[in-house]
Amino acid sequence: MSELPLRAQLAAALGRGAASLSRATGRGDGSVIGGRIALKVEPNLLAELARGRRIALISATNGKTTTTRLIAAALREIGEIATNEHGANMPTGHITALANNPKALIGVLETDEKYLPQVLRETNAVVVVLMNLSRDQMDRASEINLLAKKWREALAASQAHVVANADDPLVAWAGLAAPHATWVAAGQRWKEDSWCCPECGGHLKRDPDPHWECPECGLSRPYTTWSLDNATDTVTDPEGKTHRLQLRLPGDANRSNAVIALATAAAYGLRPEQALPRMREIESVAGRYTSIVTKGVEVRLLLAKNPAGWLESFAILDPPRVPVILSVNAQVADGRDTSWLWDVDYTVLRGRRVFVMGERRTDLALRLETDEVPFEIADSVDQALTRLKTEQPDITKVDVIANYTAFQQIRTAYGRVQ
Amino acid sequence: MSDTSSTLRIVWIYPDLLSTYGDRGNVLILRRRAELRGIPTEVVRVHSSDPVPEEGDVYLLGGGEDRPQILAAQRLRADGGLKRAAERGAVVFAVCAGYQIIGETYGDDQNNPLPGVGILDVRSGRGDTRAVGEIVADVDPALGVGRITGFENHQGRTAIGPAARPLSTTVRGVGNDGTTEGAYQGTVIGTYLHGPALPRNPALADLLLRWRVGEIPPLPPSWGERLHEERLAAAL
Ligand SMILES: [Zn+2]
């Protein structure tokens, strides 16, 4: 990276300075402010910083932070990696990640869905990893069909190798435009956004699962070379070899992230045997899946930002005796509109002790009442735990599911747990 | 259907095309508020590849993106079931994209007018700006619903023809044009209150039930009323 033009070098140095200042003053992890300052000095900075590196971009509605972490962990087997592990997934965050690791020849960048076309153009990424697209924060995000169309156009104009989930019709439709692709059978639990053909609008025929095809235009699920079997916790690679995943991260959603990560590692020449041991070391990602022990209770933190995310979280809840605390906010980062609560099926919580909290707990209360799930109102995790411990002293585990800012508030209350 | 012992048929039109964000809430709350009064219900989900049954009591249509909206309108027009049901006096409650397509015309993404189902005398097109945020409006006093609250997220602008009336007068937000919100004609209602408009406004849900089954006993106030008051206080 020594050929970086002087102006870009200066910009990158300025950005690094601002980032460490931001960290030192405790205002954040510095990934956004550093990039923002650097971009002012050199608008082409992202392209300059990316030049000569083999960049992978990871995008999806759900799981992109975790998958980015899994891929970065695997690719460290090859050498140094530049990655935005704090989840700052817009160009300013990418600039900071690349500027902080000038020697890294590989970049692994989580990318916001809306920014994917622009970042793909600027970084000339060699690999684009696409997992899923579903409804999310409609008050500020694009409509997802439009998003998929923009992905499709950007991929058609690129030389990128796509690693994509064939089980999500919107993702597959976008990925089919890329010049090269690795198709992964990574599964799709949330199907409410893909009953219609992305090409012509026809009602998709979706059986036997995971096959899908459009009876009107013929668009169909691409042939996959990697596949996942949740029941046996195994991945089958293109040579037909099976590999036990044995992740520390819980649930089918993370198995799905892992098979995508393995296929991506393979695009960089890494075999699953080399990639898996490093992926297995990860047990939490920016506070997600972390357990904190307080008042003698093991409290596990789960992040769920949208209906598909809540569905995944419900699937990994501990057995029915374990109480669950739900927290929902509607700040800008969460989306100001709580309508999505009605897309989540809460009936699976029946029989469990449930607490609701957060700035929009009244919305959540009505939602649970409608699904006939008994619940109690709480002001904080701490208050819920105190009540629980008083009434059920033998409680040892509690799960917490929260949306974005609600999650960050809880995480901060327990000392910004990783 | 004045006899409350028979089943209330709630027909959810095209959840595969018109169900952008929380539209399911209207189905769930209508069913719950009917059943709490001892009115048995049946929910019929009609996919865009299926015919629309004509003998339903309440028809619900949700929001949708541009292309699904066009497809839904084409299919509903070709099918004819919804129009025949409305002519028979069924209740129709349509939200956002659904509101636009039950009108006479609506605009595509280039703002070209396209024909709607034609059961509500309104004409919709696209405005210059997107209306996003909390909305508050006072419903036509003739309907006895009072003040409603919701979230709007649309670029539509709607003009109301002589056969329909504005559903409400806006207190905050944009609605049809910055002054009125939604429209009604007989027992057909359209509104820009997006997604779960009925959960957020129990009185509006009860209006739809009254239209179909006659007088219904009040329910003790619960979380729906609490949410209604909380959102009004937050928005004003
Ligand atoms: Zn098709």
UniProtKB/TrEMBL annotation, chain A:
One Pfam match: Mur_ligase_M
Keywords in alphabetical order: ATP-binding, Cell shape, Cell wall biogenesis/degradation, Ligase, Metal-binding, Nucleotide-binding, Peptidoglycan synthesis, Zinc
Active-site feature positions: D337
Coiled-coil ranges (or none): none
Positions of the Lipid II isoglutaminyl synthase (glutamine-hydrolyzing) subunit MurT C-terminal domain: 303-407
Top enzyme category: ligase
Catalytic activity of the protein: beta-D-GlcNAc-(1->4)-Mur2Ac(oyl-L-Ala-gamma-D-Glu-L-Lys-D-Ala-D-Ala)-di-trans,octa-cis-undecaprenyl diphosphate + L-glutamine + ATP + H2O = beta-D-GlcNAc-(1->4)-Mur2Ac(oyl-L-Ala-D-isoglutaminyl-L-Lys-D-Ala-D-Ala)-di-trans,octa-cis-undecaprenyl diphosphate + L-glutamate + ADP + phosphate + H(+); beta-D-GlcNAc-(1->4)-Mur2Ac(oyl-L-Ala-gamma-D-O-P-Glu-L-Lys-D-Ala-D-Ala)-di-trans,octa-cis-undecaprenyl diphosphate + NH4(+) = beta-D-GlcNAc-(1->4)-Mur2Ac(oyl-L-Ala-D-isoglutaminyl-L-Lys-D-Ala-D-Ala)-di-trans,octa-cis-undecaprenyl diphosphate + phosphate + H(+); beta-D-GlcNAc-(1->4)-Mur2Ac(oyl-L-Ala-gamma-D-Glu-L-Lys-D-Ala-D-Ala)-di-trans,octa-cis-undecaprenyl diphosphate + ATP = beta-D-GlcNAc-(1->4)-Mur2Ac(oyl-L-Ala-gamma-D-O-P-Glu-L-Lys-D-Ala-D-Ala)-di-trans,octa-cis-undecaprenyl diphosphate + ADP
Any single GO BP term: peptidoglycan biosynthetic process
Keyword Zinc (UniProt): yes
Keyword Transmembrane helix among UniProt keywords: no
Record's function text: The lipid II isoglutaminyl synthase complex catalyzes the formation of alpha-D-isoglutamine in the cell wall lipid II stem peptide. The MurT subunit catalyzes the ATP-dependent amidation of D-glutamate residue of lipid II, converting it to an isoglutamine residue.
Subunit structure: Forms a heterodimer with GatD.
Family according to the record: Belongs to the MurCDEF family. MurT subfamily.
Listed name of the protein: Lipid II isoglutaminyl synthase (glutamine-hydrolyzing) subunit MurT
Lineage, opening ranks: Bacteria, Bacillati, Actinomycetota, Actinomycetes, Streptosporangiales
Automatic annotation (TrEMBL), chain B:
UniProt keyword annotation of Metal-binding present: no
Record-linked Pfam families: GATase_3 (PF07685)
Residues given in the record as substrate binding sites: R130
Cross-referenced Gene3D superfamilies: 3.40.50.880
Domain of life: Bacteria
Keywords noted in UniProt: Cell shape, Cell wall biogenesis/degradation, Glutamine amidotransferase, Hydrolase, Ligase, Peptidoglycan synthesis
Catalytic activity of the protein: beta-D-GlcNAc-(1->4)-Mur2Ac(oyl-L-Ala-gamma-D-Glu-L-Lys-D-Ala-D-Ala)-di-trans,octa-cis-undecaprenyl diphosphate + L-glutamine + ATP + H2O = beta-D-GlcNAc-(1->4)-Mur2Ac(oyl-L-Ala-D-isoglutaminyl-L-Lys-D-Ala-D-Ala)-di-trans,octa-cis-undecaprenyl diphosphate + L-glutamate + ADP + phosphate + H(+); L-glutamine + H2O = L-glutamate + NH4(+)
Active-site residues annotated for this sequence: C96, H194
InterPro entries: Class_I_gatase-like (IPR029062), CobQ_GATase1 (IPR033949), GATase_3 (IPR011698), Lipid_II_synth_GatD (IPR043702)
GO biological process, one term: regulation of cell shape
Boundaries of every CobB/CobQ-like glutamine amidotransferase domain copy: 9-201
UniProt KW Hydrolase keyword: yes
Enzyme Commission numbers on file: 6.3.5.13, 3.5.1.2
GO terms assigned for molecular function: carbon-nitrogen ligase activity on lipid II; glutaminase activity
Pathway: Cell wall biogenesis; peptidoglycan biosynthesis
PANTHER family linked to this entry: DETHIOBIOTIN SYNTHETASE, LIPID II ISOGLUTAMINYL SYNTHASE (GLUTAMINE-HYDROLYZING) SUBUNIT GATD
Function: The lipid II isoglutaminyl synthase complex catalyzes the formation of alpha-D-isoglutamine in the cell wall lipid II stem peptide. The GatD subunit catalyzes the hydrolysis of glutamine to glutamate and ammonia. The resulting ammonia molecule is channeled to the active site of MurT.
Complex formation: Forms a heterodimer with MurT.
Record-stated family: Belongs to the CobB/CobQ family. GatD subfamily.
Descriptive protein name: Lipid II isoglutaminyl synthase (glutamine-hydrolyzing) subunit GatD
Organism the protein comes from: Thermobifida fusca TM51
Gene (UniProt): gatD
